[in-house]
Each structure stands twice: as C-alpha cells, then as structure tokens.
C-alpha cells in the first residue's frame, strides 16, 4: 500500500485533490476525514497540515507527499522534490519601509520577520549576511509597524497587501515556489508503485496542457497542414472516402489551439474540431 500525504487545507488542498481525482484516485468527501483508503489503487491518503508533510515524508513514515517547494525547503526535512505539479505558484521576497535598505547585503545587524525562517536563514547565510530572523506564523506585514523587525520576507503574488501596509519589495526573489511531489531523500523502495503514481500525475498535466485536434484537408495540402500540427511524435493521417481528402488528428497545446484553427482554415482545412483530453500516458 502506497502511503501519500496530501494537504488538508490552504491553497494547496483543493488543487491537489482535483489533480488526484483526475488521476483516478478516490478523494475524501468530508473534510474531517484524516485518512482515506483507496483499496482499488492500493493507495492510502493522509490529510495533513501542509507544513508537516515534509517532516512525515522525511522521517519515512509516509512514502510520498504533495506540498509546496517553500514548505519543503523551510522544513529542512530529509525529503526531496521529485516532480513539479504547476499549481499554487508563489514568490518569497523581502520588503521594508521605502527609503531604508535596498538590498540583502544591507541587512547586516537587522532583524527579518518571516513565516519561512529556514529558507530566509539559508538565503542570508548564502549572502554572508549576519541578521536575526524572527519566525511569525502570519500577518508578517505588520511586523515592521509593531517594531518586531526592520525587514520582512513574505509570499508575494501581486504585492497589493504589502503596498497597502506601506511597504516596498526590495532585492531579487528569495525563492520561486509551486506545488511539488516529494519523497524521502535517497529512498528507492517501492519504485514501481511510485513511478506509476507519477505517471498518472504526469498524464493529468499533459491532459491539461493539450487538446486533441481533428480536421479534414485536401490530400495535396496535408504536408503544409501537419507542419502546423506536428503533434508529439507525428500526427495521424487517414484517407477519407473522398480520395482527394484526408483526416488528420494531432495533439495541440491549449494556448495555441485557436490560432492553429485559424491558420488551418485559411489553408483550406474544414470540419476542424478540438476535444479535451482527460488522461494521457506519454
């Protein structure tokens, strides 16, 4: 039985559950459930605080986990990232009162407040800066106003919250984070089951990035058409009952689909259809 940690709340929880559902796994219907057995797929899911997931996986109590890269690194657990999942993206950055300091190298002797003390301490050490780090669980942007710190390090999306608090972002990003799959560092046990799980998630990622495109095109224009829709390896081309026409099927990136349809139509293609992909294996 593969034992997998899943976020029980926060910005990671719903997208993780949706991805696992799309990958064919059972998911809990009641948020109070802490453990869910998916006997058909030989997987047991444990719903944990996102910050605790790396600890459980690093100790070997669970085989895999879904968490944020920032939480993984901040935990300093013996766990490693093995797959990116692409949701819950965020950036950890420094901010302070405008006109005070402008770069991490000016933090010498100052105090930095953050919810990611592990990541920030490591970042300061990398730059050779001797500064104090204060750990706060939330509302980090008020730390300067309350005299707890001169600088904060916080997760930034648009920067609106920091600007409303009278703060300005300074320096380069500390860390670019997103959702990731993790496992115990150096662990190679149950490799076949782990790889099957990862293939399922990869299939979901592919299905979200591509659509299947079908169209009819005159036989003499097939080469020009497939140049627009090369697919992953090569498109499928089948003769139609009318020998002067062919049917083409190919995977096309979602963001390019409308443009490709326009170009195919101008080339002479007709009956151009796109359909969603629910699962894939490459």
Structure description:
- It is a single chain.
- The chain has 282 residues and is an alpha/beta fold.
- It folds into 3 domains: 2-87 and 177-207, D-Maltodextrin-Binding Protein, domain 2; 90-176, Periplasmic binding protein-like II (D-Maltodextrin-Binding Protein, domain 2), CATH 3.40.190; 210-276, 2-Layer Sandwich (Alpha-Beta Plaits).
- The protein has 8 helices and 15 strands.
- It has helices at residues 13-22, 50-58, 69-75, 117-126, 160-164, 191-209, 222-228, 257-267; strands at 2-7, 35-38, 43-48, 64-68, 79-84, 90-96, 111-114, 132-135, 151-156, 168-177, 179-184, 210-218, 236-239, 245-253, 270-276.
- The strands form 3 sheets. It has a 6-stranded mixed β-sheet, sandwiched between helices. The chain has a 5-stranded mixed β-sheet with strand order 8-7-9-6-10. The protein has a 4-stranded antiparallel β-sheet with strand order 13-14-12-15.
- Helix 3 (69-75) packs across helix 4.
- It starts with a strand and ends in a 6-residue tail after the last strand.
- The mean pLDDT is 94.
- GO terms for molecular function: ATP binding; ATP phosphoribosyltransferase activity; magnesium ion binding.
- Pfam families: HisG, HisG_C.
- One of its GO terms (cellular component) is cytoplasm.
- This is ATP phosphoribosyltransferase.
- Residues 207-278 form the Histidine biosynthesis HisG C-terminal domain.
